[in-house]
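Minutes, project huddle
Topic: does the predicted pose make sense with zinc ion bound?
PN asked that the exact inputs be recorded in the minutes so nobody has to dig through chat later. Recorded below.
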Amino acid sequence: MVIWPKNKKIAVVLTFDFDGETYWIGKNERSTKVFANLSRGQYGPHEGIYRVLNMLDELEVKGTFFVPGYIAETYQDQVKMIHEKGHEIGYHGYMHEQKRGISREEELARMEKCEAILAGITGKKPVGHRGPGGIIHPFTMEMIAERGYLYSSNMKDTNSPYIHEVAGKKIVELPTDEYYDDATYYWFSLTQPVHRDIVPPETVNECWGLDFEQLLDEPGSIMVLHMHPQLIGRAGRIRALGEFVGYMKAHGAWIATGEEVANYVLAQSK
Ligand SMILES: [Zn+2]
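Predicted holo structure (tokens), as shared on screen:
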């Protein structure tokens, strides 16, 4: 069990998949022809990201942004701003690719390309990995260990961090879940895959809030929120998120980036 710094009761990582239009292209290639969907994805870089960054600034907390290579190339100003404000940037594919059964060589080429793009902005290779659409491959864990990553945020099997021993190295897992994914509540689509059921922000805060309260009583817990600027960056939703983050901060949460938490877990495991 991990004892969090300064006896904080729980670690919270605020993660944002800054997917823009690639979010829609990855779900359904026909989206490339559906202007409305692409435009909705662009709400992230055009509008939502600024609200997310302002909220984090106001609450004086840092987050982790998983950014596809294409988005880093297309929205350089926004991605630079994320980095300059002290947030972390992690790997998330190039075009949010969600195809299963690809070869190791294909993924290796993609990782090399995207790491170089991200390093061009941040000055260093990413250390955190989240597969687009939550999809990883049989060789992913070994590959990220070989490439010097610190952590994966892909699994959904626990409420506490743990370590994958792979290729003679340690990779920290920072698990999340669909329950902590804003898409579960906020994603709306009239085209395939259709999803019409959206819920009010108060309900999201209630769901996440109950989990947070219970996890406070379970030492060594972590809560990795998994969000998207294009969804949670809507005005009322960011207001609700700000209230929830402020609440967690005031109630014993250590709110840190994935990199900070992974480094801490690794140091504790020695
Ligand atoms: Zn994504």
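Observations noted during the meeting:
- Residues 17, 19, 23, 92, 96, 132 surround zinc ion (CB under 6 Å).
- The first helix runs from residue 22 to 27.
No decisions taken; revisit at the next huddle.
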